[in-house]
Amino acid sequence: MSEAPVFCANHPNRETSLRCNRCGKPICSSCAILTPVGYRCKECVRNQQAGFDTAKWIDYPIALVTTGVGVGIAITFLNYLSFWGFLVAPVVGGGLAEVIHRLIGRRRSRSIPKAIIIGGTLGVLPHIIPILVTLVQSLRGGTDPGLLASMALSAILPVAYGFLMITTLYYRFRGIRV
Ligand SMILES: [Zn+2]
Ligand SMILES: [Zn+2]
């Protein structure tokens, strides 16, 4: 008892036993895309992404700039709070997420979290680059270890605040996986 051979919808000469689990179309191994819900054809994956990705191009710069400026300004204030800043940073991150949410509405995209990470990193950099430059300069000059340690700490705090804010934002916007 042999079943009739099935051929890939895109490659009529390739016999296959795989089928797209959404539309049922036969697909060969080079046409199949493994998704968390099983093998799918390229068309179904593309259609699904188009349905999920509702963002407009302007949403990426909005998310990037709002995160960068927000994180940058927030670190300036959080620095005064020292270790209490660790408690406040996630709250600030949540506030920024709210602002971005208002600006871009309900539109979603897989690229927004990337824009948030890039923007957030750019917001942190101005706070740590001057410290790192000073640190390297005093290492050459042989400054006492206590001073070096306190300078290193002053570089770690902005990074930690930034990290807390960015991760809070990231998880708010980490939407869709196909
Ligand atoms: Zn399909
Ligand atoms: Zn094929």
Structure description:
With 178 residues, this protein is mainly alpha-helical. Helix content is 63%, strand content 3%. Strands 1-2 form a two-stranded antiparallel sheet. A hairpin with a 2-residue loop joins strand 1 (33-35) and strand 2 (38-40). The protein is elongated and about 80 Å long. The two termini are 38 Å apart. Bound molecules: zinc ion (ZN) (2 copies). The site of one zinc ion has 8 residues, from helix 1.
Write the layout of secondary structure elements.
Layout: E1 33-35, E2 38-40, H1 42-52, H2 59-81, H3 85-104, H4 112-141, H5 145-173
Antiparallel strand pairs: 1-2
Helix pairs in contact: 2-3, 2-4, 2-5, 3-5, 4-5
Q: How is this structure best summarized?
A:
With 178 residues, this protein is mainly alpha-helical.
Order of helices and strands: EEHHHHH
List low-confidence stretches: none
Structural class by sheet pairing and helices: mainly alpha
Oligomer: single chain
- Rg, rounded, reads 25 Å
User: Into which percentage range does the β-strand content fall?
Assistant: under 5%
Helix content: 55-70%
Report how far the terminal alpha carbons are from each other: 38 Å
Ligands (ions, cofactors included): zinc ion
Count of distinct strands = 2
Largest sheet: 2 strands, antiparallel
